[in-house]
Specification:
The chain has 8 helices and 8 strands, in the order H-E-E-E-H-E-H-E-H-E-H-E-H-E-H-H. By secondary structure, the protein is of the alpha/beta class. Helix 6 links the parallel strand 7 and strand 8. About 40% of the residues are buried.
Length: about 180
């Protein structure tokens, strides 16, 4: 777990947590079936972290450059507050979140891994990158996870935000 007081201070301001999908919620692998359908594999523990954020009262969002039935289903299963699909310029979705939920930049946390995420990584109040993100994203992120995309990075991010806000899983589960 990251133990940086400045990052914990930033995490206490967060009201909305947003995520990229490929390379963050998944390991970035793309598997195609003969009919052209794409398969994505998600990490259950990462998903549980997002569910716990929702239960603790945080807003959640997915901002992804693609449209996928698998992402739609995952967002529904996790109770994602706002889903942005087919976002070629992701900063527009970030700005929409600011306006729609009347938030300041320092109230949004974001996790991304590649160039399409860089503008949000630079603008969000708190930003994380999986340890297998591209170097430019890792350079500008507030912190880099000790885990890869789809391999626990999302869960570490969620846990950090919850614990920084004094919220333990037991507190959420007992509600």
């Amino acid at each position: 777990m990251i133990n940086d007081l400045n990052l914990k201070f930033k995490a206490k301001k967060i009201k909305l947590v947003a995520f990229d999908v490929d390379g963050v919620m998944t390991d970035g692998s793309l598997t195609y079936l003969p009919n052209g359908e794409q398969i994505k594999t998600f990490n259950a523990k990462d998903g549980q972290g997002i569910v716990m954020l929702n239960k603790a009262g945080f807003l959640t969002a997915i901002i992804t450059a693609k449209d996928s039935p698998a992402v739609r289903e995952r967002a529904k299963t996790l109770g994602i507050t706002k889903l942005f699909l087919d976002q070629k310029n992701k900063i527009h979705a970030f700005n929409q979140l600011l306006n729609e939920f009347n938030l300041q930049k320092d109230e949004i946390a974001y996790m991304g891994d590649d160039y399409p995420d860089l503008a949000i990584i630079k603008e969000a109040g708190l930003s994380f990158a999986p340890n297998d993100a591209i170097d430019d994203v890792k350079k500008f992120a507030s912190a880099v996870s000790s885990f890869g995309g789809g391999k626990g990075a999302v869960r570490e991010f969620c846990d950090f935000i919850l614990y920084s806000n004094g919220i333990a899983y037991d507190d959420i589960l007992l509600k």
